[in-house]
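Field log, afternoon session.

UNIT: design team B
ACTIVITY: writing a sequence onto a fixed backbone
BACKBONE:
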């Protein structure tokens, strides 16, 4: 990170804290939220929920921000990104007047779509048309402390998941990319699609990253926030058979279902709006305000 970029982060973070939008915890990337930031975030949630309802038949599922550790293991996440994962430890008396720590079988959930795959697998063979799931806006955790306020360790991810035949799933992902661009631009954000080169799922690190890029499996929408480089605020991931095979989600023909997910980072979108339009939403362009806070 260049010194200029660090100064830019620090200046924006100071402004957010001074305005009562973020409440520092003393740990990089972990913040409380003031009421105005929360109003922006929940307004986006409501806007998005209406978009989802308008776009078809999504099953609504909600999960806590925790996963059994074996699920992360099974997905290959602990092999590919052990440094990003974090587990829950329990405390117990050590018999010596002190405390001992014991790992539980729970980890913090790193992506809001992860609990969906085992839940759908438990139902047996997928229906012919597949399934579309709205996994809501869950808290997720990535162990990557950063001074950039847009790179939080714990944040809300609004995720949708599609499971089914390969062509259907890929087309769904591509449609949502276009839709994502329209949504973010309608908020006055300068959103641009990019092919991502950080592998987010699967085994094999760099090799997978290269082939993922080539096949355009992971696309992102980036927006300028508090960094010299634009920050990804949404991602559109075609996992092929990765999760279907790992969980045993089967199509009627016996093959592993393909899956895709789209995820919107709610805090990053709120910060992008604040960075673009100013720290007081009352002064934002009326077109943006009306989309976020429609008059009932
Ligand atoms: Zn996902």
């Amino acid at each position: 990170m260049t010194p200029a970029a660090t100064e830019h982060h620090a200046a924006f973070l100071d402004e957010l804290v001074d305005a009562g939008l973020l409440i520092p915890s003393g740990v990089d990337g972990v913040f409380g939220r003031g009421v105005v930031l929360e109003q922006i975030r929940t307004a986006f949630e409501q806007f998005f929920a209406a978009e989802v309802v308008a776009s078809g038949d999504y099953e609504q599922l909600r999960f806590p921000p925790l996963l059994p550790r074996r699920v992360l293991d099974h997905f290959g996440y602990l092999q590919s990104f052990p440094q990003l994962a974090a587990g829950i430890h329990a405390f117990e008396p050590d018999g010596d007047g002190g405390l001992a720590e014991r790992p539980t079988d729970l980890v913090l959930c790193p992506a809001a779509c992860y609990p969906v795959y085992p839940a759908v697998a438990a139902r047996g063979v997928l229906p012919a048309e597949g399934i579309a799931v709205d996994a809501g806006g869950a808290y997720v955790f990535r162990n990557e402390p950063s001074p950039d306020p847009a790179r939080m360790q714990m944040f809300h991810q609004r995720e949708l998941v599609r499971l089914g035949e390969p062509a259907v799933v890929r087309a769904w992902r591509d449609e949502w990319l276009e839709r994502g661009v329209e949504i973010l631009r309608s908020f006055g954000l300068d959103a641009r699609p990019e092919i991502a080169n950080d592998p987010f799922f699967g085994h094999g690190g760099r090799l997978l990253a290269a082939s993922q890029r080539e096949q355009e499996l992971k696309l992102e929408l980036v927006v300028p926030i508090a960094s010299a480089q634009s920050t990804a605020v949404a991602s559109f991931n075609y996992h092929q058979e990765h999760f279907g095979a790992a969980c045993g989600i089967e199509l009627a023909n016996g093959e592993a279902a393909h899956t895709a997910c789209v995820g919107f980072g709610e805090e990053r979108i709120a910060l992008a709006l604040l960075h673009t339009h100013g720290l007081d939403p009352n002064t934002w362009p009326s077109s943006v305000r009306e989309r976020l806070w429609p008059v009932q």
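LOG NOTE: Confidence is low (pLDDT under 50) at residues 202-207.
NEXT ACTIVITY: expression trials, pending approval
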